[in-house]
């Protein structure tokens, strides 16, 4: 096939335009001397369209937008979007406890319109090396670039027993609104006790007309537990903590990730309250037919088909017992995991791996045997090395600022950490405060 070399060589090519690379593109708008292009296979920006439920809200404050954390006067901030749309005062008056995800999607789409460096409908099919440059190829096009930034997001995780059956009525939550199954009179099972499971459960029981015959919400967790959003827990979402975490031994990091599960994967307390009240209302006030069950401490371990229905085997995690459940529709809210993008296949042998992941340097570049001075940076691919903040929106602009500083080889952004409230690292206390710090501790 003949490829056309579309443009002059770039300094940065970004693969994927989700919030992570969109933040990078937004910050780079102020630095046109760094030539960049971003590609996404989708025809247009859509933020997790299959889960854009009407009432779903952001799990971070809106100040954690594309730019504000490192560049609060940037004209691609959420506040600027509100002002340009002439809704700033109404937004203030509305006093949303959390911004609707649909509104943040509007904001992201508006930001896309302001950026000339984005190319939608352009899947990157292969990445290779040509001389001292990286080559990125799509269908009939090719770009050369000094550096690459992977922002390809995470892929749906599905329990092994459900994988052979995936389709319209045995679906991962990412497909929930895409399949849009009729639910009236159906037996629906929701698997997964995190935020997505809660949002889907709430959606299934929201409309009193056309209720399912039954909705059963199953989770491996020992209860339907809230997200810990307290101030000290939110310190886990700071540059200081993520840098501290990065320097810990691997076994400690693994232990901490499991200990911190509810700081990242819990359900927002407001949503849990709303679900509880709705179940109460349906059961005691509206008296609507329909069986609503919540079953914690159950793991989905088997799926078979009997006639038109699914037969699910659930292992009780606290008793040595199994339950069998029939369902017409099963929604697997079983999370996401990072996987190496397929387009890296031509250079996969040149990339150092650690388990399933990359070996990530402090500037978010990965270790690989590429041309001298050419780096591959990763977004949302280093949870095991950077902690629970990595796949979250909270530190995205800070991570992008690190990447920009690294590419520019000078500090275009001041990302020095503020003095921490929590001194995670004993060494930092001893070095920074010297004898005074030791005196205070004794
Ligand atoms: C429903 C949902 C709600 C969430 N809400 C929050 C929240 O409120 N707060 C929070 O902090 N976090 C939230 N998260 C977690 C996280 O912030 C989001 O998943 C976020 O979208 C991650 O951004 P990303 O840019 O890394 O990846 P994605 O948004 O997944 O974007 C990746 C993009 O890469 C493209 N792509 C992949 N491969 C290629 C290729 N070869 N060529 C071209 N394009 C490619 C895809 O088409 C996609 O558009 C949420 C996650 C989900 C699933």
TrEMBL record:
Its EC number is 1.14.13.59. Coiled coil: none annotated. InterPro entries: FAD/NAD-bd_sf, Lys/Orn_oxygenase. The keyword Transmembrane does not apply. GO terms for molecular function: L-lysine 6-monooxygenase (NADPH) activity. Keywords: FAD, Flavoprotein, Monooxygenase, NADP, Oxidoreductase. Its cofactor is FAD. Gene3D superfamilies: FAD/NAD(P)-binding domain. Pathway: Siderophore biosynthesis. Belongs to the lysine N(6)-hydroxylase/L-ornithine N(5)-oxygenase family. This is L-lysine 6-monooxygenase [NADPH]. It comes from Paraburkholderia caribensis MBA4.
């Amino acid at each position: 096939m003949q490829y056309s070399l579309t443009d002059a060589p770039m300094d940065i090519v970004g693969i994927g335009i989700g919030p992570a690379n969109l933040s990078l593109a937004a910050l780079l708008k102020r630095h046109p001397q760094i030539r960049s292009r971003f590609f996404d296979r989708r025809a247009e920006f859509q933020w997790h369209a299959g889960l854009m439920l009407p009432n779903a809200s952001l799990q971070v404050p809106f100040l954690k937008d594309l730019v504000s954390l490192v560049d609060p006067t940037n004209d691609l901030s959420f506040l600027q979007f509100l002002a340009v749309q002439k809704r700033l005062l109404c937004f203030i008056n509305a006093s949303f406890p959390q911004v609707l995800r649909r509104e943040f999607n509007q904001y992201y789409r508006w930001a896309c319109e302001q950026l000339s460096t984005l190319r939608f409908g352009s899947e990157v099919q292969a990445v290779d090396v040509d001389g001292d440059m990286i080559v990125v190829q799509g269908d009939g096009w090719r770009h050369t670039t000094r550096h690459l930034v992977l922002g390809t997001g995470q892929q749906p995780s599905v329990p092994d027993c459900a994988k052979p059956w995936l389709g319209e009525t045995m679906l991962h939550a990412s497909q929930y609104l895409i399949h849009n199954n009729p639910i009236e009179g159906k037996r629906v099972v929701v698997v997964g006790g995190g935020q997505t499971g809660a949002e889907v459960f709430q959606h299934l029981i929201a409309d009193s007309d056309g209720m399912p015959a039954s909705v059963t919400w199953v989770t491996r967790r020992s209860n339907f537990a809230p997200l810990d959003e307290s101030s000290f827990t939110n310190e886990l979402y700071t540059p200081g903590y993520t840098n501290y975490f990065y320097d810990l031994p691997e076994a400690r990091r693994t232990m901490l990730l499991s200990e911190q599960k509810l700081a990242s994967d819990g359900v927002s307390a407001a949503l849990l309250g709303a679900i509880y009240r709705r179940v109460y209302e349906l059961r005691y006030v509206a008296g609507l037919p329909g069986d609503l069950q919540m079953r914690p401490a159950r793991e989905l371990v088997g799926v078979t088909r009997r006639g038109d229905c699914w037969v699910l085997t659930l292992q009780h995690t606290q008793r040595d017992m199994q339950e069998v459940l029939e369902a017409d529709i099963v929604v697997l809210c079983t999370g996401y995991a990072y996987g190496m993008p397929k387009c890296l296949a031509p250079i996969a042998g040149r990339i150092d791996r650690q388990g399933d992941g990359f070996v990530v340097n402090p500037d978010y570049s990965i270790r690989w045997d590429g041309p001298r001075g050419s780096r591959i940076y990763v977004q949302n691919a280093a949870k095991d090395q950077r902690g629970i903040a990595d796949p979250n929106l909270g530190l995205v602009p800070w991570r992008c600022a690190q990447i920009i500083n690294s590419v520019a080889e000078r500090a275009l952004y001041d990302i020095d950490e503020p003095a921490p409230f929590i001194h995670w690292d004993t060494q930092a206390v001893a070095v920074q405060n010297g004898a005074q710090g030791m005196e205070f501790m004794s």
